[in-house]
Amino acid sequence: FYSTSCDGTDGAGWSVAIASAELLMSVGTTYFFAVGGGEDPVSGAFIQVAEFLLSLSLTEACAPGVAGCTGDTCDDPDVLDASSLPAAATGNSGDYQDVYGFLATRDAVHAFTPQTTGLYDLGVVADDGVLAPNVFVSTDCNSAAVVAWQYVYEGNPFELTLEAGTTYYLILDGATDTTTGQVQELGGYTLTVSLL
């Protein structure tokens, strides 16, 4: 059993974990674990636990608002390596929150600082292969600083001249269904930046 208060009077109460459980835990919150008896899977009788091993392992969660997760804001973007082109990144918009609100969907933020001034192709492919990801390019992440916007799909490349030494924020904000025109969450994607 586990809870965030020892008497179980908080909103969560005591939750049951049988054999193993995956818990989303927050930094700074104290969690209490109680080990007791249980039902024998063979006889169905209640048995006391005499010996037990309690172990915890950490898998860092990159979820909306989790500190230390890159790509949620322009203050902490996922940085693309401009020294080796094409630069590439994969992600899932479901891991982030709607910070910039261009299209009222969750947005992922990547930063790219080209080493060479030139014409670049910004390629984004949705994992489902159907949706056309919406890409906003900005130099300081506000709507007044958007230098270009396009939804990207096969036959509709996003080509843009970028200046060496300038950091560009590539904000992936939702995706457009090319058959209905409806904007929805992007989900999984692959982003590439190539110098043409």
SSE blueprint and pairings:
Layout: E1 2-3, E2 32-33, E3 38-39, E4 46-47, E5 78-79, E6 87-92, E7 107-112, E8 118-126, E9 132-138, E10 146-151, E11 158-162, E12 168-176, E13 183-184, E14 188-195
Parallel strand pairs: 5-7
Antiparallel strand pairs: 1-2, 3-4, 6-14, 7-12, 8-11, 8-14, 9-10, 9-12, 12-13
Structural class: mainly beta
Q: State the helicity in percent bands.
A: under 10%
Tell me about the biggest sheet?
A: 6 strands, mixed
* Helix/strand order: EEEEEEEEEEEEEE
Mean pLDDT across residues:
78
Which consecutive residue ranges, at least 5 long each, have pLDDT under 50?
none
First-last Cα distance: 58 Å
Q: What Rg is obtained from the alpha carbons, in whole angstroms?
A: 23 Å
Strand segment count: 14
> What is the global morphology?
elongated
Percent strand = 25-35%
Polypeptide structure, described:
The protein is mainly beta. 0% of the residues lie in helices and 35% in strands. Strand 3 (38-39) and strand 4 form a beta hairpin. The chain is elongated, with a radius of gyration of 23 Å.
Key terms for this structure?
196 residues; mainly beta; four-stranded antiparallel sheet; elongated
Offer a concise description of the structure.
The protein is mainly beta. The protein has no helices and 14 strands. Strand 9 and strand 10 form a beta hairpin.
